[in-house]
Hints:
With about 525 residues, this protein is of the alpha/beta class. The chain is built from 13 helices and 13 strands. α10 crosses α11.
Amino acid sequence: MRVAVAGCCHGELDKIYETLALAERRGPGPVDLLLCCGDFQAVRNEADLRCMAVPPKYRHMQTFYRYYSGEKKAPVLTLFIGGNHEASNHLQELPYGGWVAPNIYYLGHFECPPYNSSTIRSIYHVRNIEVYKLKQLKQPIDIFLSHDWPRSIYHYGNKKQLLKTKSFFRQEVENNTLGSPAASELLEHLKPTYWFSAHLHVKFAALMQHQAKDKGQTARATKFLALDKCLPHRDFLQILEIEHDPSAPDYLEYDIEWLTILRATDDLINVTGHLWNMPENNGLHARWDYSATEESMKEVLEKLNHDLKVPCNFSVTAACYDPSKPQTQMQLIHRINPQTTEFCAQLGITDINVRLQKSKEEHHVCGEYEEQDDVESNDSGEDRSEYNTDTSALSSINPDEIMLDEEEEDEDSIVSAHSDMNTPSVEPSDQASEFSASFSDVRILPGSMIVSSDDTVDSTVDREGKPGGTVESGNGEDLTKVPLKRLSDEHEPEQRKKIKRRNQAIYAAVDDDDDAA
């Protein structure tokens, strides 16, 4: 099947679908599925904007509301995960995932409004309960999505080219602190065939060869790909051919193993702010293994009447933005989404939002919403993680990212995007363009993280600084596909524009596609 993967969307659905349509006209056929790696920004109205974890001056309506209202419909089935710039109150209605618009599905988190400046951040934190549940999976995984990169993944790709493009990553790369430690742990544990990420606003590919646990067992490998944000002349979209069972249905289905794990770990859900650790085999817990057994999966299957189809039960739960009637003082309400209610009732698990509502009423765990973005308190009513993810840019500091505590005017510091000027934008053409980056050769994680002149993969680099060589999938197919860029009405200048930091243009209320961020 043909799968398109997008980096940070930042609410630019119209632009993404336009670029996808152009790619389909140029390519061998239609795309079957679109995967978005976070910062999706499913903003329905002005109240949603106030719950987005960005400074108020960057809160501008993009184009998602048109798909929510039914004015437009996504032309391809779209699945997305959350990032660190989301409409927190909207996504919290669907802690187990669900439809945010027809043909657009969110892959599951929770928090509760009204938000203060701490909880508006904690909505995107990595929780130990989420990592714990994912580590119960035993069956092979084809595709894993994360917003931030797994820590250390840059040591398995063309690190030299990465640092040439993003020189301000050097210290974190050398200290091995760039990326998410939780994602790295999951990568080592789950060993998926593909891992797609975004967040750091640069295209980067790597191939991680895992070690076989037992002798005679075939070692698995993960093909990693991170993509840029949705801007002109940037590598934000990639189309891949991925093996797919031709007899499988053409609609979404729940995974029986994951449903079984959700049901087994239901008693571990914690909606208070108290710190606690997950069960482990240390003699202190009666149970520590919550993986799905054949018997438990059979029980869940029977509970669902052997029907794993995801119901198309989207419903409008909040008023939609009307450009002709702006409502800057729209009230923020904690809503219970009927999709979540139905899912929890079918599976026999806790409706997290109902529990949060009761906890709020009984113990007042959620404070009043505050507009101030400089409060750094952490009494967020969340299930905290043992991983250090409490930064405005997840666990990775990226100067090209909006910081929640930034001042009104950023300093006149600039970041060069030299490598982007070598990559053409998508335009109709009869000839296939060359791929600007490839999956790199397998490399062993070095003992020293210091980047030297020869500390890079043994890949050919052409005069434009693009790594050569290819990596093939199991069926011998070349994975080096044409990178897709956002459409632009203007030609690329001879000398690349200097780019201001922190995504300023993404959140600016302008229509010029060439404004860089």
